[in-house]
Design goal:
The longest helix has 22 residues. The chain has a seven-stranded parallel sheet with strand order 2-1-3-4-5-9-12, with helices on both faces. By secondary structure, the chain is α/β, with parallel strands linked by helices. It is built from seven helices and twelve strands. The chain starts with a strand and ends in a 17-residue tail after the last strand. The chain is globular and about 50 Å long. It has a domain of 165 residues: NAD(P)-binding Rossmann-like Domain (Rossmann fold), CATH 3.40.50.720. It binds NADP nicotinamide-adenine-dinucleotide phosphate (NAP).
Length: 248
């Protein structure tokens, strides 16, 4: 099986490449460092030659809606069109729990992911969308994103972070199965409130920032799965945080 990892040198992509190679798959990385640009259309057809499966783990640092939509829709459309011509049999896309066709979020990045899922579905390559919750290692970054004037503004939203290697294992498993699975989700084993999670995470790192609880900007349940999902087993590394109920 030949697999193209779009974003194969990124945080997720490089780990998926290692797992797939350990299982004997032929892996090609397609990212900017490989000379492939899905926005400019550079080397896209070339990198897809002989590829059976695409794993799309591309990412952008752009959080405003216009740039995020342009990036996620454009790159996925480019991969889908060229993939169809190359005879790709399975396109696996990494998305985020809470993102779907009807996402009502006003966060530009999320709207980019909505557009990305739609671009995937608009093509004819059988697909699997793997929606993940936030990676455990990403929680300090998320706290930074919620920081205004040195104070962390945390809504009491639900959050269920997953350990990255467990997501990586799922992506590799889906690729190696060769079977498109539609839409599947993965989340960590524990559900928290975001303000509690930020407070404990910062305290464990001796970070003096104050965490204040603020009103939720949207649906406080939006970041956690609502249907069936693969539950990770790796506990959040900071212990003693009050748990939120997993059913409500
Ligand atoms: N962080 C979370 O908690 C979380 C949760 C759920 C889902 N996700 C999703 O995980 C995915 C992967 O994230 P990550 O952290 O692994 O991203 P990352 O480390 O930033 O890697 C992104 C990759 O995209 C490549 N790339 C960017 N623009 C490109 C272009 N125009 N053409 C070709 N390649 C391009 C980069 O290439 P170079 O390396 O050459 O620059 C890099 O390999 C994202 O889609 C994100 O939405 C994240």
């Amino acid at each position: 099986m030949k697999v193209l990892i779009a974003g194969g040198r990124g945080r997720v992509g490089s780990k998926v490449a290692d797992v797939l190679e350990a299982h004997g798959a032929e892996v090609v990385s397609g990212g900017l460092d490989d000379g492939v640009d899905y926005i400019a259309g550079t080397k896209v057809a070339e990198v897809l030659k002989g590829v059976d499966t695409i794993i799309n783990v591309l990412n952008t640092g752009s959080f405003d809606e216009e740039a995020a939509v342009r990036f996620f829709e454009g790159t996925t459309h480019s991969l889908t069109e060229a993939g169809e011509r190359a005879g790709v049999k399975h396109h696996i896309l990494l998305s985020i729990v809470g993102v779907g066709d009807e996402d009502g979020s006003d966060i530009g990045y999320y709207l980019g992911k909505v557009a990305q899922e739609k671009a995937l579905k608009a093509g004819s390559i059988p697909y699997t969308i793997v929606r993940s919750t936030q990676f455990q290692g990403y929680i300090p970054v998320l706290a930074d994103q919620h920081t205004v004037d040195g104070v962390v503004q945390a809504p009491r939203d639900l959050i269920q972070p997953v350990e990255l290697d467990e997501l990586v294992a799922l992506l590799a498993e889906v690729a190696l199965s060769g079977t498109p699975q539609g839409e599947i989700e993965i989340a960590g084993p524990e559900r928290f409130y975001m303000d509690d999670l930020f407070r404990a995470t910062l305290a464990a790192a001796d970070d003096p920032r104050e965490v204040v609880t603020v009103d939720s900007a949207g649906d406080p349940d939006a970041l956690v799965p609502h249907g069936a999902y693969r539950a990770g087993t790796v506990l959040y590394p900071v212990r003693g945080i009050p748990l939120a109920p997993t059913t409500h």
